Amino acid sequence: MAARTDFPRKSAYCAEGDYAWRYERAWRLVILDDLTAVPAGGTLRTEAKPFAPWTVKVTGDRRGLPSSTVLAALEQETRASLAADGTRSSENARKMSATFPDAAQALYYRGVRAVRASYTFTCRSDASRNTSGHVLTWETASATTGLVNCLAEPEGNADSVLARQVLTRCPSGSPARGRVT
Question: If you average pLDDT over every residue of the chain, what do you get?
Fold first, then answer.
């Protein structure tokens, strides 16, 4: 998605400028526990293991343009609250427990809606402040938690982007894999 965002009119960095944005959103796993066998009537206690950890980053030749200013402009553009520069994806870890009435092979997960953006900032009042860069962050309100039971038929598990990603980790031939495409 490409768009433009006006820069706040009164800024210490630039009196008058704007951003040109290109960004995409995608669901991304941030927590994924190992497959755990749970006996009928048993309780799963999650470990909330970080999965492919990453950190929010604002990169590029910012020439003194604060990362918080770039993120604020991206928040304005996406109309979403975003995680701050330096925040680690592992900070989304949430431990929980769940009781299964029937035997289960459970996979606990948590994911976020990541935002990957590139920008060009044009300072109309001072061309020496023109700059560009990249942002990797996530929508803070998007954190989603779930469980996949590899012993359940496809309709017994959630049908979401994250759940489908996790279903691929069920053992080959397990009932849940019937839906993986």
Answer: 90
pLDDT digits (tens, 9 = 90+) for 62-75: 777 889 989 999 99
The distance in angstroms from the start CA to the end CA of the chain is 26
CA gap 77, 117 in Å, rounded = 11
Shortest CA distance to 21 belongs to which of 38, 48, 3? 3
Q: Which DSSP letter does residue 55 get?
A: B
CB atoms within 10 A of CB 2: 8
In the chain, where the domains are located: 2-179
Are 114 and 26 spatial neighbours (Cβ–Cβ below 8 Å)? Answer: yes
Q: What is the three-class DSSP state of 163?
A: helix
Tell which residue, 128, 134, 174, has the closest CA to residue 154.
174
DSSP string, 141-153: GG-EEEEEETTS-
Q: Are strands 97-99 and 43-45 parallel, antiparallel or unpaired?
A: antiparallel
Q: How far apart are CA 44 and CA 34, in angstroms?
A: 12
